[in-house]
Write a structure and sequence with these properties.
The structure holds 2 protein chains of 2 kinds. By secondary structure, chain A is an alpha/beta fold. Chain A folds into 2 domains: 255 residues, Type I PLP-dependent aspartate aminotransferase-like (Major domain) (Aspartate Aminotransferase, domain 2, 3-Layer(aba) Sandwich), CATH 3.40.640; 140 residues, Aspartate Aminotransferase, domain 1 (Alpha-Beta Complex). Chain A is 38% helix and 13% strand. In chain A, the strands form 3 sheets. Chain A has a 7-stranded mixed beta sheet, sandwiched between helices. Chain A has a 5-stranded mixed beta sheet with strand order 10-11-14-13-12, with helices on one face. In chain A, strands 5-6 form a two-stranded antiparallel sheet. In chain A, strand 2, helix 5 and strand 3 form a beta-alpha-beta unit. In chain A, helix 1 runs antiparallel to helix 3 and helix 3 runs parallel beside helix 13. Chain B is of the alpha/beta class. Chain B has a single domain, classed as 3-Layer(aba) Sandwich (Rossmann fold). Chain B has 11 helices and 8 strands. An 8-stranded mixed beta sheet of chain B has the order 1-2-4-3-5-6-7-8, sandwiched between helices. In chain B, helix 3 crosses helix 8, helix 4 packs across helix 5 and helix 8 packs parallel to helix 9. Chain B is globular, with a radius of gyration of 17 Å. The chains are: A alpha/beta, B alpha/beta. The interface between A and B is large, with 54 and 42 residues.
């Protein structure tokens, strides 16, 4: 069946209407904050005052000279701001942190060694042995591993709930719960997290909502505007965008009132590890980041290399342009796949029938990203034939590259999950995940059609 | 620490050290819709270098109880009451924006209790445009965004505040939203702006001040441009310090602010 002849199949395509893409407040000349594209290029950076360098300089230095002994003591005691040692802060990393915070609408950020390190930093700052987390079950496999297996070994238990089951979120909260957590687009089923509703449930119980916004980036959604309190990214993906670097960024909205909650003595009571400092007194809105940096980076040490920060900054400068193209290409590929006879279903939130279609229209009017899964008709052997016939799509374990990527989740990213856990995450043995890149969309569709033909032949 | 002033609880940040009323005291007074946390770097530095420090949360702001003070003159009286509650006879008054007018009043009402007067990001009269007052009344979140944008002169102030990685625009906006939300009985933003706008005792107060006076002005300040300090400067004859910053001087140039305070407070420590 040709692409054209299959129009009108069950999975219709409903991108948002024209004009729905701009969610920004109306701008008023003279006193509006800069727009997203401007911030992506300028936030946190200015021409270097010493050299005049226009691009952000790369500061590959482990440590920074003190002016005198008193300056040194003042920096260590948080009486003055500045850089001491690059595990704690670095000038290049600081530009990245400020830039991502600006794009998200946050108060600040911490760059970490990876997205996993960012998740761990958030959890370790807010939770300890005896604590409990409520998490969406639709997670990146690595996040599931961290919460289900590794953090449990350190006494932090996690309950997993279907992201769209609001009653389950509420019911899972216990007296020792410290955090609710989900992904903007649940990997790999692309369930859109109902951030307004889940954050409301969290706040009813005096708890923060942490959101992994890796697949959407602040270009497609700013979770803080919908009620999230903390956001992190695997900057390895779209923020960097070029498949060259591993990194993470953890951002604080400054909206959550830790004192009012009363559940976070780590932030609101004296900390013996820093001369009895009470972080919420030092910064009324920035206590979380202070503790995360002064304890988490200091002690766990999962900092980002300045070189990585510099590479990610190069990517962010073109983030708006790239995300537009990612979404444009994805919509064309999704349309083609949804109409193809070898495809059983396509899990893209803009499609009719996707359980998150209404939420996607509400929360993701610029597009639902460029990562999605589809189910092939046929056997596992046909699935292998499909992947091995692809020429442009690279078979590897990543998403968010400028190049198009493909993977089979059940045998790779989610291989540690049993069938029941896979089903809870919305994955079948035949699910194939695509990450649509920036190539010519026609070439991508030709590549997929060729591979689908190969899969069809393999089943003959 | 918490003080009891007029039967109400008042929060004062003491710079990470126990407050000692027997050593030279510096009082920090924040501006409209802010709290003590705009001073923490400077307060912490001074507290660890021989001073006792009180960075106050004004009534109804941050961690302090209400009721709100009804004019700048009453706020000046209240600051002196805070000194009484803390057991302090004399102090240096350091105020930012609206807080600078409160500091002026405190230094004027009982001149002998002021060892220094440091007015940061100041102006007199501190008129607020009708458009901004209306916006503060009808759409305070929009007014916060307007003021926030006016208050910052750069997208890349280093080393940032309270430290590297802080996005100043976001931090200031979140603080103003937090303080606004923390006072449920009325529109705190509108109240603070009205106090600034209505204050008319500056010239008289300036004539009462007897201590050394310093102005700290942002070269790129759009909220309180330096030209709006001329009348006050004529009366107070201050030492004027210009910093490469906007209205958010403590956040955009904390190192410059520290150097100015070291000059202004020189001689207080024996």
């Amino acid at each position: 069946m040709s692409e054209k002849s299959s129009q009108g199949r069950s999975q219709g395509f409903s991108p948002p209407p024209q004009g729905a893409a701009r969610m920004d407040r109306p701008r008023s000349a003279g006193y509006a904050d800069p727009g997203f594209d401007t911030l992506a290029l300028h936030a946190g950076a200015a021409p270097d005052p010493t050299t005049g360098a226009r691009a952000v300089p790369l500061h590959m230095s482990t440590s920074f000279v003190f002016q005198d002994c008193d300056h040194a003591a003042s920096l260590f005691n948080m009486e003055r701001a500045g850089h001491v040692y690059s595990r704690i802060s670095n000038p290049t990393n600081a530009v990245l942190e400020e830039r991502v915070a600006a794009l998200e609408g946050g108060i600040g950020a911490i760059a970490t060694a990876s997205g996993q390190a960012a998740l761990h930093l958030a959890v370790a700052t807010l939770a300890g042995a005896g604590s409990h987390i409520v998490s969406s079950s639709a997670l990146y496999g690595g996040s599931h591993n961290l919460l289900h297996y590794t953090m449990a070994r350190f006494g932090i238990e996690t309950s997993f709930v279907k992201p769209g089951d609001l009653d389950a979120w509420r019911a899972a909260i216990r007296p020792n719960t410290r955090l609710l957590f989900g992904e903007t687009l649940g990997n790999p089923g692309m369930d859109v997290l109902d951030i307004p509703s889940v954050s409301a449930i969290a706040h009813e119980s005096g708890l923060p909502l942490l959101v992994d916004s890796t697949l959407t980036t602040p270009y497609l959604i700013k979770p803080f505007e919908h009620g999230a309190d903390l956001v992190y990214h695997s900057a390895t993906k779209f923020l960097s965008g070029h498949g060259t670097v591993i990194g993470g960024v953890l951002v604080d909205s400054g909206q959550f009132d830790w004192d009012k909650s009363g559940k976070f003595p780590e932030l609101t009571e004296p900390y013996a590890g820093f001369h009895g400092m009470v972080f919420s007194e030092e910064s009324s809105v920035g206590a979380f980041l202070l503790r995360a940096r002064r304890e988490g980076l200091r002690d766990f040490g999962a900092c980002m290399s300045p070189h990585s920060a510099w590479l990610i900054l190069q990517g962010i400068e073109t983030l708006p342009l790239r995300m537009q193209r990612h979404v444009e290409n994805t919509r064309r590929v999704v349309q083609m796949l949804a109409a193809h006879p070898m495809v059983a279903s396509v899990g893209y939130p803009e499609l009719d029938g996707h359980p998150s279609q209404a939420l996607a229209q509400q929360l993701l009017p610029k597009g639902a990203g460029s990562v999605f899964s589809f189910d092939l008709k046929g056997s596992r052997a046909q699935g292998r034939a499909f992947i091995e016939a692809l020429k442009i799509f690279s078979h590897l374990a990543n998403v968010g590259d400028c190049r198009s990527l493909v993977i089979h989740p059940a045998s790779t990213t989610h291989f540690r999950m049993d069938d029941a856990a896979l089903a809870l995450a919305g994955i079948t043995p035949g699910t194939i995940r695509l990450s649509i890149g920036l190539e010519d969309a026609d070439d991508l569709m030709d590549d997929l059609k060729r591979a689908l033909k190969a899969a069809e032949k393999a089943g003959a | 620490m918490d003080l009891q002033v007029n039967q109400q609880s008042v929060y004062a940040y003491t710079g990470g050290k126990a407050f000692d009323p027997a050593i030279p005291c510096v009082v920090f007074i924040h501006g409209a819709l802010n709290d003590h946390s705009v001073w923490t770097l400077l307060a912490r530095q001074l507290a660890h270098h021989g001073y006792s420090v009180l960075a106050l949360d004004l009534p109804g702001h941050g961690r302090s109880d209400g009721p709100l003070l009804q004019d700048i003159e009453a706020a000046g009286t209240w600051v002196l009451a805070c000194l009484d509650a803390a057991g302090v006879q004399q102090a240096a008054f350091v105020g930012h924006s609206m807080g600078s007018l409160i500091a002026l009043e405190a230094a004027a009402q009982v001149p002998a209790r002021a060892s220094r007067l440091v007015m940061v990001g100041t102006a007199y009269p501190m008129k607020v445009s009708a458009a901004l007052l209306d916006t503060a009344q009808n759409d305070p979140l929009a007014a916060i965004d307007m003021v926030n944008s006016f208050s910052h002169s750069t997208w890349a102030a280093k080393p940032s505040y309270p430290g590297p990685g802080g996005w100043l625009h976001g931090g200031s906006r979140a603080l103003m939203r937090r303080v606004q939300a923390g006072w449920a009985p009325s529109n705190l933003f509108r109240h603070d702006f009205q106090l600034c706008n209505d204050y008319a005792n500056g010239a008289h107060a300036a004539q009462q001040v007897s201590c050394a006076v310093h102005f700290v002005l942002g070269e790129r300040d759009q909220m309180t441009p330096s030209r709006q300090t001329r009348e006050l400067a004529t009366l107070l004859k201050p030492m004027v310090h210009h910093l490469p910053a906007g209205h958010a001087l403590m956040q955009e140039d904390p190192e410059g602010m520290l150097k100015v305070l070291q000059i202004a407070l020189k001689g207080m420590l024996k």
